[in-house]
Please model this.
Amino acid sequence: MSRRLEPGDHIYCKRKGGLYDHHGIYVGDYMVIHLQGKAKKSKPLPPCQKCGNKRVINGEIAKVCVDCFLDGEKLEIFDYGVPPSEFSARRSGTCSQRHSKPPSEVIRTANDFLRGESSAAYDWFYNNCEDFAVYCKTGSNGSAQVGEVIAAAGLVACATLLGPVTALGFAGAFVLSKFLRR
Ligand SMILES: [Zn+2]
Model:
């Protein structure tokens, strides 16, 4: 982590030993709003003592404590407004060239989704934790912008095993994104 965690930050961590990353929005008070991935079966663990998280993985937007979010992994901050030269040198799914909205708006958007009050096209990023976080941060899925490719790459990264992203991989993810959007 290169800087201190602030409310409104897009955070992520490894899952399954680094096979993919999990993303969420830090909303302050040691809590995170994230889109939980669906699992084939949930482990019968007792609820979290800190946040009451029942640990049921159901593909819904949920608010949990940082410990539940990280699940023992290292916290990383997803950077926004990264210059193109730096962006191309960094690993895919760790930063964006697009700019973040003010933290208060980011947190409000995440809370709107949590309460089911957002009017945004929920199904676009359904079951994609990175798209959810990017949407909260930027307010769009990046139509016709470089961010669309970034988000589309994330779509693949969260769902499957994505190694180094090649130019071909980017193109494929872009097409997939167009297809899924209908
Ligand atoms: Zn918890």
